[in-house]
Structures are given as C-alpha cells and as structure tokens.
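I would like you to sit down with the pair of lines that follows and say whether tokens and residues agree.
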Amino acid sequence: MRTAIVGLGSAGRRHARNLLALGATDLVLVRTGVGQTHVLEAPLDSLPTAPALRDALAAGVKAVVIANPTSLHVATALEAVRADCHVLVEKPVSHKVQGLAELAAEVAARGVAFLVGYQYRFDPALERIRDLVSSGALGDLVSARSHWGEYLPDWHPEEDYRQGYSARAELGGGVLLTLSHPIDYLRWIAGEIESVAGFASRRAGLDLDVDDVASLSLRFATGALGTVTLDYAERTPAHTLYLTGTEGSVAWDPTGTTRVYRAGAGADTLHPPPGFQRNDMFLAEMRHFLACCAGAESPRCTLADGARVVEIVSGVVGDGG
C-alpha cells in the first residue's frame, strides 16, 4: 500500500522511520518547501518525494500520514479522504472546530479509516490504568488530575523554538493544543467530559503569541471531577496522572511506573514491559493504523474523539498574557 507522509518535522520523520521498521516499502515524502526545511538522514534520504499531496495522490497513494502544522490538518485530510485514502493525522486534529463536521461527513461517505494520533492510548501503563478503572478495581472514580510541564526551548535544541508550529498562532500552536494528550486520555480512561472551565495565559517569558500555560477543571459524565494543568515553562519535564476512587488510587509518571493502592489489598507497583521505550507507543499506533487500513481493526482514537478535544479546548478562556 503506497503511503504518503505529509510534514517532515520530528513527528513526520518518526512515522516514516516506523513505517520502514514495520516493513513498508512504498513510501512517498511530500515536501512542499513551505515552512521549516529539515535535513533527511538515512534511510529517509533515499525515499521518493513529491512537491504536493496531489502529486502523491496521482501516483496511487492509498494512505496518508498527516504531520504538517495543525492549522493545515483539516484541508490536508479533506484532500486525502476525497481521494479515498485512509488517514492518520497527528494530534490535535485541528486548531478550531470549523471544518470538522465537513470532514466527518466525508469520512463517513467514503468509508475510509481515520485515526487521530494520540499515542498515549498505546501506552501499556495507561492501558492497565484504564482496565483498573473500567473493571471497578478502584471503585467509583472520584477525581482525576493530570499535569504536564516541559520547557519548550528544550524540545528541539537544534532549532529556533519560535519557528515551530507549537509556538505560532497561525500554525495552530499553543500549549492547550500541543499538549492536549491528557484531555484525550482522561476521556479514554474516565469517560466523557460533560463540562469544562479553564484559563490559558502567556506567563513563561518565551516571546510567543500563543498560550504557554493553562489550567482546566473538568466534570465527567459520571460526576467525577478532574483537573489538567499544562505549561511550556517547567525546566525539569514533568508528566503525571493521579486517579482517586472510592476503593483505591493510582499514580503514574512517564517512566511507566504505576503505583496502585486498593482497599483491602494494599499497595502495588507496576512496571512497564522490559525494554519499553517511548517510540514503542508510536510503533503500536502505526501497527494499529495499518490494521485499520486493512479492515482488521477499528480506529482506537476516532475523528469524533479528536474533534471532542478541540471542542473542549475551544471553551477555555485566554487572557492574552
């Protein structure tokens, strides 16, 4: 199956490498020349390129991986879906709700697979936590809180952080959208979020025109409450999740270590699979996407899931910093 990769920043290059690692042999890299130009190293430097997605589609592409700036996601996805291609689009699916209903209608009409790239749905520790919650091992969920802070200039030290999509409003950047993973995985673990209140601001001194800190209060359909805090300022990266239930609690950190307490059973520590690395989530996501393209599996994170995150983010009040 010929697959096009649109966008060759860190995410697009990762997806291309993972496709090759999974045995894909027919890839096309779409290089428009717009935005930052990244040097391609082996084995990506030997892959064929196309100057626009339409050229790749004309060459018989059947699947498209979209990893260009967020503000271009919907237009790119519409072009791919209308060519009857399966789509994996990097999170967030868009920077605004406008256009998502049209995209959903096209996906339904064409019957193509559409997966949104929230890779934490493929984290084995979070999968176990979801099982604990859904099985009732923690009793009724009472509260959930997630925090993710990471200093933006340290993400890609070799690049000017101000030029990346995460830092620019016209490209759909900002901490709420770029680090929206907790909103998605909390919906996946704890159920639908029925209401949200929150604020976003610019306080990190990074000379950005987007939010760099945000705080959200959530109410789930079950009645459980949640909080999500995000920032581009934390010099020592931190990403944590803590769940409290009527019969136990769970604490998780990005090392994959999960500490579980259950009433009557005491405390237990769960560790990630031996040799687990961050890229394993992306590999699992790509395997899943290929299975969805083949009709063997249904998308774990649907367009509707991705759209719901955008709806939630759009309800947050920004103060302009």
In short: The chain is about 30% helix and 25% strand. The two ends are 47 Å apart (CA to CA).
